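Request:
You are asked to prepare a plain-text protein record giving the amino acid sequence and the backbone structure tokens, at your earliest convenience.
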Amino acid sequence: MPTLSIIIGSTRPGRAGLPIATWFAERARSHGGFDVAVADLAKIDLPMMDEPKHPRLGEYAHQHTKDWSAQVAAADAFVFVTPEYNYGYTAPLKNAIDYLHAEWKHKPVGFVSYGGVAAGTRAVQQLKQVVTTLSMLPLFEAVSIPFHPQFIEDGVVQANDVMQDAATAMLDELVRVEAVARELRG
């Protein structure tokens, strides 16, 4: 079974990304299309890019980069859980993406975004520009959660039908695209 890595893009204390990612991971496990792993950038704690050589060379000097490389290389598909900060995505997520190069290639990526009225969609639009440069395959289907605090009660997401249906549509598409992309990865 292919592996889906859910990457939590927010590292801020009290972040909504953790309960949202927890909900989505449970939803992905019940979907049954993937083995599911969660990568929490707050726990991984990558320093700001500290590798002396360009990531496309794959010649990593630091153990934290080698560990991150192995984790990303082992995944067949990704979901980035991202807030929107000032019309964009988070610096820790950009840093985590930029640490690597070939490990991302020809892998599909979906997005679970959250925020205010725009539901994190402006952050996702910026992320799509970045991931296509790495030859990732961003999906159209997404989970976009507007005014997200209304869906979190005692640290647990209370997803509505729209969120559940969007998650199913995105997971279904991730399964289809991953199967085709696997041939590209050879």
Notes: The chain has a mean pLDDT of 97. Helices lie at 17-31, 41-44, 63-74, 91-98, 121-133, 161-185. The beta strands are 3-8, 35-40, 77-83, 108-115, 137-138, 143-146, 152-153, 156-157. The first strand starts at residue 3 and ends at 8.
